[in-house]
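Researcher: Structure for this, please.
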Amino acid sequence: MKITTKKERFLNPLYLESGRIIEPYEITYETYGEMNEEKSNIIVVTHALTGSFHVAGRYADEPKAGWWDKLIGPNKAIDTNKYFVICSSVIGSCTGSTGPISPMYPSHEPYRFKFPVVTIKDMVKAQRILFDKLGINKVKAIIGGSMGGMQALQFAVSFPNFAQIVIPMACTWATKDWAIAFNKVAMESIIRDSNFKGGYYDIEEYKKSDAHGFAVGRMAGFISYLSPYSMDKKFSRGYVNNDGLYELFGKYQIERYLDYNGYNFPKWFDPLSYLYLMKAINIFDVSRGYDSLSEAIKEIKAKVYLISFDKDFLFFADEMRELHECFKSINKECFYENIKSDYGHDAFLVEVEKFDNLIVDILEGKV
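Model: Predicted structure, token format:
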């Protein structure tokens, strides 16, 4: 599979929903496969909170493949022998595109809290500008899960003539208080951590610190990405063998799992970006700027395929059903599938085998 990684720099200001601008800015993106002459085989992938442009394949020195490698590649559901796939890191991230730890032009100092709040709509707008620069004016499909699903849905509303097919997965049309509450725990944990230094930490020193606040905040995230059923199946109240049951700080396997993932996370993801991206998720409401959700949906011209997971305890299946019912109420065509899974929110990343054939059928026009 041909993998190409590039970065584009934009000198014109990016005008944000807030009224502020980012100028200049950069977007890093990766492509897979070959674009055909008609440019009719292009699929845009939009990433989740901690995702990046590196969605599939493996670099020569990389121990782990891209985050959706189970779905994208030669002879996989999104077959790169057939499709040209493109994924870019969103504005606000720490994975190659301009964000709060990027230099604030003309100085070489990071933006930090001077970086403006960005929204999902801003992220999508920046990607659309990138695609224009690349000569991509229309695509076959846009697909993403979680925050990526929000972007896919926002693309359908903001740029109704851009995609033929839109597939939002494991997301919502407006972030509910339950998800905002989880994000609040994470945000407070980061901010109150002495290692954070009010946002003026040294980036390399922070990675080497224990970053306990960020780690604890990430643990809250991991809990929301799983489900009680998947936890029971995976850990089954197992206790760490060499820890005594009556030792105060002896650990159950689930505790060790949270420790491992929580404390490793700050080594590769930036806390300021995490704060900004969670804020974007909290703000998300695809009906904002319209009189109602129905009015926003009326803008959509693409074929929309909504996919939820029935044990998702972050963005509940009922939220996607509500969106589907709204489509039906205005007699607008929309396909909806609720995938049976005990895994939880992260099923869209982990249990690809439960929906990959559906993706194939959607892209081939069989659904």
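Researcher: Any notable elements?
Model: The chain has a mean pLDDT of 97. The chain has two domains: 3-174+286-363, 179-279.
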